[in-house]
Specification:
Length: 96
Amino acid sequence: MEIGQVSFIVPQVVQNELAKLIKNPKKNQDITSTIDFIKNFKILPITGNFADKELVDYVKKNHAIIGTMDKELKKKIKEFGGSIMSFSNNKIILES
């Protein structure tokens, strides 16, 4: 199946949350890798205090595809008609 051109964007609220999480020594390496991975992505001006809440609200309004590995967030997004993109074994997985 072909889905066409894909553009990766990062909500500002996610970038802000990553900046806070990088201070956690247990998560520093993963967060640093994530920040490096997204550094050239377009920033979507979605702000707020909790990234998960803002992503769910965005899905409710826009029926978007959200990239995440967070199981609880995946569940919430699917409940509101969104789709999930994730990576597993060097493959892109699309769930709806």
